[in-house]
């Protein structure tokens, strides 16, 4: 089911596009699998967490992915596998389609305006590249 959530328009053009549009595009594979308005916000939150994890150095990404999988799939092995699969898919999607976008998703809000659902996404710029951890470089 497609959702009619419209991003708000910024007052000036953004070089990487509106974060609200970017996060909707990023989450699209998961959003296309749901048909429940309540799940829509949950899926966007999950995608936002994965987006932010992608901005971390690789060793920290692995730790955060494991922590998220453990938390979300505590009692159900099938859910645990699905969560891990979805996280990996989103992290790969970020690398392939959104590699140059280093904004961190800070928060978002969905609200009604003139009969349309709107998405307001707040973001902040991060460093250009994650810092390498000491000891990872080999001579």
Question: Kindly state the mean pLDDT as a whole number?
Answer: 83
Q: Give the fraction of residues assigned to helices.
A: 40-55%
Sequence of secondary-structure elements: EHHHHEE
- Assess the beta-strand content as a share of residues: 15-25%
Q: Termini separation (Å)?
A: 52 Å
| Silhouette | globular
Q: Which structural class do you get from the secondary structure elements?
A: alpha+beta
Q: Would you report the number of β strands?
A: 3
Low-confidence stretches: 130-139
Protein model, in words:
It is globular, with a radius of gyration of 16 Å. Mean pLDDT is 83; it is low at 130-139. The protein has one domain (5-125). The longest helix is centred in the middle third of the chain and has 21 residues, at 77-97. A hairpin with a 2-residue loop joins strand 2 and strand 3. It is 48% helix and 17% strand. Strands 1-3-2 form a 3-stranded mixed beta sheet. It contains 4 helices and 3 strands; from the N terminus they run βααααββ. The protein has helices at residues 19-31, 37-54, 58-72, 77-97; strands spanning 5-7, 103-113, 116-125. It is of the alpha+beta class and 139 residues long.
Descriptive key words:
single chain, about 140 residues, alpha+beta, disordered C terminus
């Amino acid at each position: 089911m497609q959702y009619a959530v419209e991003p708000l328009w910024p007052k000036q053009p953004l070089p990487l596009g509106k974060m609200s549009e970017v996060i909707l595009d990023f989450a699209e594979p998961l959003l296309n699998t749901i048909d429940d308005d309540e799940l829509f916000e949950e899926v966007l939150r999950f995608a936002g967490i994965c987006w932010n994890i992608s901005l971390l150095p690789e060793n920290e990404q692995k730790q955060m992915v494991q922590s998220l999988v453990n938390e979300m799939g505590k009692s159900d092995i099938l859910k645990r596998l699905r969560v891990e699969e979805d996280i990996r898919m989103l992290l790969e999607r970020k690398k392939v389609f959104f590699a140059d976008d280093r904004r961190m998703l800070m928060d978002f809000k969905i609200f009604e305006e003139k009969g349309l659902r709107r998405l307001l996404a707040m973001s902040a710029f991060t460093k250009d590249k994650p810092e390498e951890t000491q000891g990872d470089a080999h001579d």
